[in-house]
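User: We ran a pulldown and think these components assemble together. Before we commit to crystallization trials, I'd like a predicted model of the whole complex to look at. Sequences follow.
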Amino acid sequence: MTDNLVIAGRTFRSRLMIGTGKYPDLETMRAAHRASGAEVVTVAVRRVNLADRSAGSLMDYLDLDRMLILPNTAACYTAEEAIRTARLAREILDTPWIKLEVIGDEKTLFPDNAGLIEATRVLAKEGFIVLPYFNDDLVAARRLIDAGAAAIMPLAAPIGSGLGIQNFTTLRILREMITDVPIIVDAGVGTASDVAIAMEMGMDGVLLNTAVATAQNPPLMAAAMKHAIEAGRMAYLAGRMPRRLYASASSPLDGLIGSRP
Amino acid sequence: MTDNLVIAGRTFRSRLMIGTGKYPDLETMRAAHRASGAEVVTVAVRRVNLADRSAGSLMDYLDLDRMLILPNTAACYTAEEAIRTARLAREILDTPWIKLEVIGDEKTLFPDNAGLIEATRVLAKEGFIVLPYFNDDLVAARRLIDAGAAAIMPLAAPIGSGLGIQNFTTLRILREMITDVPIIVDAGVGTASDVAIAMEMGMDGVLLNTAVATAQNPPLMAAAMKHAIEAGRMAYLAGRMPRRLYASASSPLDGLIGSRP
Amino acid sequence: MTDNLVIAGRTFRSRLMIGTGKYPDLETMRAAHRASGAEVVTVAVRRVNLADRSAGSLMDYLDLDRMLILPNTAACYTAEEAIRTARLAREILDTPWIKLEVIGDEKTLFPDNAGLIEATRVLAKEGFIVLPYFNDDLVAARRLIDAGAAAIMPLAAPIGSGLGIQNFTTLRILREMITDVPIIVDAGVGTASDVAIAMEMGMDGVLLNTAVATAQNPPLMAAAMKHAIEAGRMAYLAGRMPRRLYASASSPLDGLIGSRP
Amino acid sequence: MTDNLVIAGRTFRSRLMIGTGKYPDLETMRAAHRASGAEVVTVAVRRVNLADRSAGSLMDYLDLDRMLILPNTAACYTAEEAIRTARLAREILDTPWIKLEVIGDEKTLFPDNAGLIEATRVLAKEGFIVLPYFNDDLVAARRLIDAGAAAIMPLAAPIGSGLGIQNFTTLRILREMITDVPIIVDAGVGTASDVAIAMEMGMDGVLLNTAVATAQNPPLMAAAMKHAIEAGRMAYLAGRMPRRLYASASSPLDGLIGSRP
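Assistant: Here's a predicted model for the assembly, 1044 residues in total across the polymer chains.
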């Protein structure tokens, strides 16, 4: 079965995207990356010296033959900062790809949807392939797409919370309404089933970092995530059974209310 | 990593157990069994002619080189019926293994815990390896073990409901309190994430049937379940990150209340 | 609107039942009882000297003009103990009412359903009005009723946990299947909405103790519970709106899956 | 106990706000309003002829001695429309109060947070008391307050869905971070317990319409809502017990994850 993720014309066999922060050490990060099967790795331009490719540098530990590097604008608090950071990333890495973050609150790291729309518009016009990480909001999603986003990345829960998907209703509606670009769930994943659930909802992919990097055994958790993304995607494509209160109940409970679809 | 399931001294590499009912046809069943990786397959003694091994019979479609056949006493409504059915299964199949069902309600197929304890006691004394499917209840669980159960099989939700785990609290407590025999979650699974969640809770395995047999694409759902059981087990062993309201929140939300642990 | 609770022919205007344990002091208990509007108060025969009616005794602080005293067999671990304790209560209090507890596990205080059925049978034959507190199980519920229970009291969650209703599926099925005796949810309530939810599910009443007694302000929490029981009952009788994913969605989401009905 | 809601210097004894749409008839609406105890009633300026006070008009059925009329800008799809509609309402009703709606999607009626911020800024400068209904988003909440909102009204779920609170995490964070203006939960309530839960989370009030207007018995559901708001508020003030897995569990489960706090 060929079932690839395509973003901006590029094909990925894996629907998992992974990060580089918070690992106990770079060897562990590399092992986790391998175990994850991810073909996209995101790097915070403001935290990593992208130009440093020397032995022992973070960049040295990334397997760029297998993985697309996706620079991100973490720690940018305005559209302007994010735009500048994206341009810098393109210059150093010679890539149009950017995971766009405009943070609106220091404590929770919630995104600033307005700032994201503004920055997406500017960057898309400059030829960037923009993947904005945003607060789950249908109206903002449409504006991000109008502004040129190549995919949209709603949060499941606050960054680094590990809470898993909080708002099934909004994500279901996003999936129902948005079909022109991929939806990648980003932020808030805590464990493997969170990933499976996102995929069972019909999401196109998942980006995660803390859940793997701060697990007790990051490479093993990365392998769990690899299986989870397959499990969830296959279950989605396989067409699940209807829910019933019990097997002989007269009517199926098709709807999912405030819970997983 | 060696991480096998051991029940009554027998080792299984897969923690998934699978059924034989409700498939559209036997070819599809066989394909699903293969895709699942399951090494245990359960068969309803009262519904299947176990003696019939002719071409085209259900038994003919089971890959018994790879899978242990686990006869079950579905459709038995008293301990006596279940005991008789277990003996019949042993006679025909020459196996001491029995998945014990004593059904207490025709509509919901809820188990009769009292009948199960009684039948387990009799059968265990006769040398059966008894795996009772029971209503999630700590006090009943201890009595089943005292009566000689080789593993216990609490339900996640009513048979055939597809609702996934309903009572996280009871299952968490079962896991905390019961460590001398394996706990296999049985009944109520609807999709892959249900399996992953059960495994993340530290359960030893999952038995399912309807979720695969009545999916739109049973072999694909079976493959999803294979990945899900790996995902959940690995995530459990990998040690998940703590939950927080947001990344910089002062205290982790370690407990999981009325929800997944 | 007349909407009373009737158990064994006795009519109660309030559907709330309340306990006597864990209060900081007896004055606070009395104030909470008054604020709750409860007409049934339960007392642990093994913990309270029922014969002591002197000033300052617990019994002295109960408003028995307004409230029916419902002795309970807390801390009884066998049917025999519970039967003996019920008889003792009847002797001292001259009441046939008994809230029957047979505890099956010291740590979790989970009930022993088998012991309860046995004790219910004996006590009902002796003319007791038996209200057994049991583990939510349809098959056991039917046996309790066959044994002569005047009402059944499934737990919402472990005693003293404050978790609220854990298994909506089992309680929904109990409500659908059991219509010949009242169902009183007992144990596990943590706050007012837990009570409202139980009533919205069509339960006939709620018994609680810890949630009020160990709140920071017990009389205020008792008043909250009084309102909650009214709110939930009225909402049940008023017939709630159907759920929809959004207002103009084509099909209502009538079923409630793994969640509140 | 004095525990009033104060918005823009005006004191309300009831924390419930109610609507006027979707009732079967105006008599039923009036009866429901009375039963609710609400002191704020919202009216859609674009749907109701506010100038018509003749016998039999909607305005004639509002008890304006007891209730503050809160005009709303429902069915406005741009900031400009909403601003114009607010000015019109002020002219006719001679009130500075406005429940601000800028709808961003016709199907789901999700709010347009950007449009709301813009309209709030303009209207607040003109002396309006602006209560914006918005998509639950901390960054937008802060901007609404900076723009001059007198209270903020995050949605619980899509308007008319009846799903109850979907995102406990975002609402908990809003409550933790926003203390300078009241938070009124608006939209998505389906039944009484939804209201109790919102109040238990520390919200300052709840606005609802469909849940009462389309219940089978609107006045009875309105009475349920009145009790629910009291129940939830009192429970919040009373300080609930900690959650534990079971009563003797060593550590309380204080955090509530992806669920009610």
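Confidence is low (pLDDT under 50) at residues 254-258 of chain D. That may be worth checking against your pulldown data before setting up trials.

User: Thanks, that helps.
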